[in-house]
Amino acid sequence: MDEYVSFALAALRPHAERIVVALPSGASPENAAQLREVADALVESPYKGFDPAVYPWVVDRESSVRDFDEVVFTGDGWFGPIGDISVAIDRAAMNTAPVRAMVEVPSHLPDDFPDAGYPRRILPWTWTAVRREVILSPAWQGLWRAARASDVSTEREFLDRAAAAGHDVSIVFPAVDYPSHDPAVYTPLQLIDDGYPFLGRTLFTLYPPFLDRFAVIGREIIDGAGIRGYPLELIWQNLARTVPPRGLYAIGGSVEVLSATTSTYDPERPFRIASIIHVGDIDDVPELLDRLAQLPDPYSLYLTTTNGKRAAQLQRLVESRADERIAAFEIRVTPASEGRDMSDFFVGCRDVLLDEGVDLVVKLHTRKMRRKTTNVRRYFRRYQYENLLDSPEHVRNLLALFQREKGLGFVFPPMMHIGYSTMGRGWGGLQDKAAEVAARIGVNVPQDSVSPLAPYGGMFVARPAALRLLTGERWRYRDYGRKGAAQYKHLAHLQERLIVMAGAELGYHARTVLTREHASISHTALESKTDYLFSTTRGWPVEQIQLMQRAGDIGHGGVVALARMYVRLNHPRASHVLMPLFGFALRAILTLRLARRGTQALIAALLGRPWDPDR
């Protein structure tokens, strides 16, 4: 139970003679204890999640409810109240209809996208008030039975059934007064300015490309709620736990382009900072130390390396600088591990991450990237180092984000897409393994379906408290690796991809940061690539994406792959039978192709000629 629920119930307390809260089946004792502080009665419903049938069930169970003049059916499907809720309650009370809903909802449910990780969610009702004569009427039970039989027991369904049963139904904020059929989703701030006190959670559960089509800007709406007096940390805490991280990132517009000239940092509220740097390439260390010197306050420095000789060099290097910003430093020689910077972070420096005296940790690393071209290596370093530690004002503005939002857990550069093909396949085939690790450490946040929101490149700034689920595990160096004693293959990559999800389970959200120069470079490259990607498909992006995802993986192209896509799109039932045949054909073609290339290479070697695989 997140804090926004307690906030809402406390606001309802002065307006209700009795508050009855129905807890889902199996709710924790901690949740029950929190709710008892603001509720008159607490009942455990027979339903695991929300089911509209809980409303008549409570009325039947709590017979005293029938003695009240009016019963309001509501739930935790909204953030609020925003503004003075008594204004909306008084406006509703002036209406004489025996059944009144606070806002009109459409007759059809929002589009759902289950394959993309956004199934339709039936959230608790917003606010439907029913007068005593309706509850005592002979039609009451029949009304609910009819609604249940339709399997669409939404608030709108109940209102339609009530009207069909002969009850007068009224809407306090009807859709006809607004420029859309669903004002709670499409024009929520206009509703709030008219006295409507709630911001519906439905908006934040919808597929981001769907919202994009209708220009629904989540960041504008969230900020608007804050401007109107609602504590934004309550919104971010709940959404972090209930929305896939990349979905919240898109809806919340969580990219910050930081200024290099002015700062909003408050020097009266400094952070206690520890910087952990894994050193694989000592040549980059002076640049990193120069950048860390731009931190506004002293920090503790931890350097890790697997080489004793390199450790001695680092000792001399740090001592020769006499940097006043380094309050203390320590060099740790760690075992060689395939986990590299991640194993040194979670194993070699676990004590630092668990230290209550550390407010923020800055994680960086240096390494030789022998498999990358010179341009890619150069741009990678620029992208990571500059977006995190570009200038004194840039760094202050980054730290100011943490001052402004107590629920902000992580800051890192956006997914790098220039010189890298990560975009669209960020899980790297590790999605199932990530789900295993998430279950092991107690993460229940919805998983991103395409690429997780993560600090690709392994450099970020974080609150240690947001890392607690990961640091709470006793990872060992032998856990990292692709074979042998490693419990999870590619554990370093798994941890990197789970960092945001693990923090979200605790209610922390993430933001990414860019300099103005990198924002310009990144946006223009993305715009160009997206334009080409959508050039062969029609419709809105949400429709284009659906089409491509229904077609499935194109692989390396070719006749078999295109035939497989055609069958998936036009004969989905037959595709279940034919997919194994397509898989066999693709493997056969790949085998023949490899055999041919091997034969060509062998002939070239026998003839003493260079072999060009592209010819």
What does this entry look like structurally?
With 615 residues, the chain is an alpha/beta fold. Helices cover 45% and strands 12% of the residues. It has 26 helices and 16 strands. It has an 8-stranded mixed beta sheet with strand order 9-16-14-15-13-10-11-12, with helices on both faces. The protein is globular, with a radius of gyration of 29 Å. The protein starts with a helix and ends in an 8-residue tail after the last helix. The mean pLDDT is 88.
Which class of secondary structure composition applies to the elements?
A: alpha/beta
The backbone outline, from C-alpha atoms, is globular
Low-confidence stretches: none
Share of helical residues? 40-55%
Average pLDDT, rounded to a whole number, is 88
* Proportion of strand residues: 5-15%
Largest sheet report: 8 strands, mixed
> What is the CA–CA distance across the termini?
63 Å
Identify the strand order in the major beta sheet.
Answer: 9-16-14-15-13-10-11-12
Number of E-state strands: 16
Task: Please give the count of helices.
Answer: 26
**Global Rg:** 29 Å
Condensed summary:
This protein has 26 helices and 16 strands.
Secondary-structure map:
Blueprint: H1 3-12, E1 20-23, H2 29-36, E2 41-44, H3 54-61, E3 70-73, E4 78-79, H4 85-93, E5 99-103, E6 128-131, H5 132-135, H6 139-149, H7 155-164, E7 169-173, H8 183-186, H9 188-193, E8 199-200, H10 208-213, H11 218-227, H12 232-242, H13 245-251, E9 255-257, E10 273-279, H14 285-292, E11 299-305, H15 308-321, E12 326-333, H16 340-348, H17 350-353, E13 360-366, H18 374-389, H19 392-404, E14 408-412, H20 431-441, E15 460-462, H21 468-471, H22 491-505, E16 509-514, H23 516-533, H24 541-551, H25 558-570, H26 572-607
Parallel strand pairs: 1-2, 5-7, 9-16, 10-11, 10-13, 11-12, 14-16
Antiparallel strand pairs: 3-6, 4-8, 5-6, 13-15, 14-15
